Amino acid sequence: MLSIQNLIDRYNRGERNFEQSKFHRGNFAHCCLHGIDLSESILCHADFSHADLRGADLGWTDLSNANLEGADLRGAILTRADLSRANLRDADLRHADLTLAKLDHAHLEGAKFD
Protein backbone atom coordinates (compact mmCIF):
# COMPACT_ATOMS: atom_id res chain seq x y z
CA MET A 1 0.00 0.00 0.00
CA LEU A 2 1.26 3.47 -0.91
CA SER A 3 2.12 5.67 2.07
CA ILE A 4 1.90 9.45 2.01
CA GLN A 5 5.67 9.76 2.45
CA ASN A 6 6.23 7.32 -0.43
CA LEU A 7 3.86 9.33 -2.63
CA ILE A 8 5.67 12.57 -1.78
CA ASP A 9 9.09 10.99 -2.43
CA ARG A 10 7.96 9.65 -5.80
CA TYR A 11 6.33 12.99 -6.64
CA ASN A 12 9.60 14.78 -5.83
CA ARG A 13 11.39 12.42 -8.23
CA GLY A 14 9.02 13.51 -11.01
CA GLU A 15 6.22 10.95 -10.90
CA ARG A 16 2.75 12.48 -11.22
CA ASN A 17 0.33 9.57 -11.79
CA PHE A 18 -1.20 8.36 -8.53
CA GLU A 19 -4.73 7.73 -9.77
CA GLN A 20 -6.99 5.42 -7.76
CA SER A 21 -5.03 5.98 -4.55
CA LYS A 22 -6.61 5.61 -1.11
CA PHE A 23 -5.66 8.00 1.67
CA HIS A 24 -8.57 8.17 4.11
CA ARG A 25 -7.70 10.93 6.59
CA GLY A 26 -4.31 11.48 4.89
CA ASN A 27 -2.36 14.59 5.86
CA PHE A 28 -1.15 16.57 2.83
CA ALA A 29 -1.28 19.97 4.56
CA HIS A 30 1.10 22.51 2.99
CA CYS A 31 2.34 19.96 0.42
CA CYS A 32 3.37 21.11 -3.05
CA LEU A 33 1.61 18.69 -5.42
CA HIS A 34 0.88 20.84 -8.47
CA GLY A 35 0.08 18.79 -11.55
CA ILE A 36 -0.48 15.56 -9.62
CA ASP A 37 -3.01 13.02 -10.93
CA LEU A 38 -5.13 11.72 -8.07
CA SER A 39 -8.16 11.06 -10.24
CA GLU A 40 -10.58 8.37 -9.06
CA SER A 41 -8.94 8.36 -5.63
CA ILE A 42 -10.51 8.06 -2.19
CA LEU A 43 -9.35 11.03 -0.14
CA CYS A 44 -12.29 11.53 2.20
CA HIS A 45 -11.43 13.37 5.43
CA ALA A 46 -7.95 14.14 4.02
CA ASP A 47 -6.18 17.35 4.99
CA PHE A 48 -5.02 19.41 2.00
CA SER A 49 -5.10 22.71 3.86
CA HIS A 50 -2.83 25.29 2.22
CA ALA A 51 -1.58 22.67 -0.27
CA ASP A 52 -0.44 23.62 -3.78
CA LEU A 53 -2.72 21.62 -6.09
CA ARG A 54 -2.49 23.87 -9.15
CA GLY A 55 -3.44 21.92 -12.27
CA ALA A 56 -4.05 18.72 -10.29
CA ASP A 57 -6.38 16.07 -11.72
CA LEU A 58 -8.90 15.30 -8.99
CA GLY A 59 -11.67 14.20 -11.32
CA TRP A 60 -14.02 11.52 -9.95
CA THR A 61 -12.21 11.74 -6.60
CA ASP A 62 -13.94 11.34 -3.22
CA LEU A 63 -12.94 14.44 -1.27
CA SER A 64 -15.97 14.38 0.99
CA ASN A 65 -15.28 15.97 4.37
CA ALA A 66 -11.77 16.91 3.19
CA ASN A 67 -10.05 20.03 4.48
CA LEU A 68 -8.96 22.16 1.52
CA GLU A 69 -8.90 25.44 3.42
CA GLY A 70 -6.56 27.89 1.71
CA ALA A 71 -5.55 25.33 -0.93
CA ASP A 72 -4.38 26.57 -4.32
CA LEU A 73 -6.59 24.70 -6.80
CA ARG A 74 -6.13 27.06 -9.76
CA GLY A 75 -6.72 25.14 -12.97
CA ALA A 76 -7.43 21.88 -11.13
CA ILE A 77 -9.73 19.29 -12.67
CA LEU A 78 -12.51 18.54 -10.19
CA THR A 79 -14.97 17.07 -12.67
CA ARG A 80 -17.46 14.85 -10.84
CA ALA A 81 -15.43 15.11 -7.63
CA ASP A 82 -17.35 14.57 -4.41
CA LEU A 83 -16.66 17.68 -2.35
CA SER A 84 -19.69 17.29 -0.11
CA ARG A 85 -19.08 18.73 3.36
CA ALA A 86 -15.53 19.70 2.28
CA ASN A 87 -13.91 22.78 3.78
CA LEU A 88 -12.97 25.03 0.84
CA ARG A 89 -12.74 28.25 2.85
CA ASP A 90 -10.31 30.70 1.23
CA ALA A 91 -9.38 28.13 -1.45
CA ASP A 92 -8.33 29.48 -4.85
CA LEU A 93 -10.56 27.78 -7.43
CA ARG A 94 -9.96 30.17 -10.31
CA HIS A 95 -9.98 28.35 -13.66
CA ALA A 96 -10.78 25.05 -11.87
CA ASP A 97 -13.18 22.70 -13.67
CA LEU A 98 -16.02 21.94 -11.26
CA THR A 99 -18.30 20.39 -13.89
CA LEU A 100 -20.78 18.09 -12.13
CA ALA A 101 -18.81 18.29 -8.88
CA LYS A 102 -20.87 17.50 -5.79
CA LEU A 103 -20.69 20.49 -3.44
CA ASP A 104 -23.52 19.65 -1.01
CA HIS A 105 -22.92 21.42 2.31
CA ALA A 106 -19.37 22.42 1.28
CA HIS A 107 -17.93 25.43 3.10
CA LEU A 108 -17.06 28.01 0.43
CA GLU A 109 -16.63 31.19 2.47
CA GLY A 110 -13.86 33.33 0.97
CA ALA A 111 -13.18 30.89 -1.88
CA LYS A 112 -12.01 32.53 -5.10
CA PHE A 113 -13.79 31.68 -8.34
CA ASP A 114 -13.54 33.12 -11.86
Q: How would you describe this structure to a colleague?
A:
The protein has 114 residues and is largely without helices or strands. It has one domain (17-114): 3 Solenoid (Pectate Lyase C-like), CATH 2.160.20.80. The protein is 8% helix and 0% strand. It starts with a helix and ends in a 102-residue tail after the last helix. The mean pLDDT is 98.
Q: What is the CATH H-level superfamily?
A: E3 ubiquitin-protein ligase SopA
Following the backbone from N to C, one meets helices and strands in this order, namely H
CATH architecture, by name, is 3 Solenoid
Strand content: under 5%
Shape: globular
Strands, total number: 0
Oligomer: single chain
Low-confidence stretches: none
CATH class: Mainly Beta
Sketch the major β-sheet: none
Q: Helical stretch count?
A: 1
Helix share bin: under 10%
Distance between the termini: 38 Å
Radius of gyration, CA atoms, in whole angstroms: 12 Å
Structural class: little secondary structure
Mean pLDDT: 98
How many structurally independent domains?
1
CATH topology: Pectate Lyase C-like
List keywords for this structure.
Pectate Lyase C-like, little secondary structure, 0% strand, 1 helix, 114 residues
Overview in brief:
The chain is mostly loops and 114 residues long. Helices cover 8% and strands 0% of the residues.
What's the helix and strand layout?
Elements: H1 4-12
